[in-house]
Specification:
This protein is about 35% helix and about 25% strand. By secondary structure, the protein is α/β, with parallel strands linked by helices. The longest helix is centred in the last third of the chain and has 20 residues. About 5% of the residues have low confidence. One of its GO terms (molecular function) is GTP binding.
Length: about 220
């Protein structure tokens, strides 16, 4: 697969308190590396990865890794509006980071209008469970995810558990949003970009959707 070619670009923003492990998740996903000590994000960092969401449809993922500290919020807020997907991350061993998830969600949802951002809630550092350091149980995390209208998944950048699955889930959720019309390509909005004319790419999505329906109905 030629990774220089892509049909869509999705901007994904990483959200959550400082030290919950947003940068570690991206390091594991994009480079398959884990560093015990990683520099704290100052403002916003950028990562890029490519994913084939279905045969012949390649997506360029542009990640915006935001700093969780309050003093950088004026900087990071400026990136919310041009994002189509958000990974809401909290530390399973840090109760306060879980309690702040709703604040992160509300802040982004308010500022992105009139556009749409789709979310996935990630309980990070699942490796802490074995060490008896869990401060948030799965039931309450799933309840919060349901309230936010987002899927929930637990992951660990340290072990690699569910890191790829979490980001792939969000990517495919955005792509399905494009196919259903929940997400629309718009001029002047960088949340989603296509490598071809908007109308032509939209028609390709509809054709793919029709082909899948016809295939599923074939005897």
């Amino acid at each position: 697969m030629d990774l220089t070619l892509w049909q869509y670009q999705f901007r994904i923003i990483m959200l959550g308190d400082s030290t919950v492990g947003k940068s570690s998740i991206l390091k594991r996903y994009t480079e398959d590396l884990f560093l015990e000590c990683i520099n704290q994000t100052i403002g916003v960092d950028f990562y890029v990865h490519f994913l084939e969401v279905e045969p012949g449809v390649r997506v360029k993922l542009q990640f915006w890794d935001t700093a969780g500290q309050e003093r950088f919020r004026s900087v990071t807020r400026s990136y919310y509006r041009n994002s189509v997907g958000g990974l809401l991350v909290f530390d399973l061993g840090n109760r306060k980071s879980f309690e702040n998830v709703q604040q992160w969600h509300a802040e982004v949802s308010e500022r992105v209008q009139p556009y749409t951002v789709l979310f996935v809630l990630v309980g990070h550092k699942s490796d802490r469970d074995k060490a008896g350091e869990r401060a948030v149980n799965r039931t309450e995390a799933e309840k919060l995810a349901s309230q936010l209208g987002a899927p929930y998944i637990e992951a660990s950048a340290k072990t690699g558990h569910n890191v790829k699955e979490a980001i792939d889930l969000l990517t495919r959720r955005v792509y399905q949003g494009l196919k259903s019309g929940e997400i629309q390509l718009r001029e002047g909005w960088d949340g989603v970009k296509s490598s071809g004319p908007t109308a032509q790419m939209s028609q390709k999505i509809q054709n793919n959707e029709t082909a899948q329906k016809n295939k599923s109905c074939a005897c």
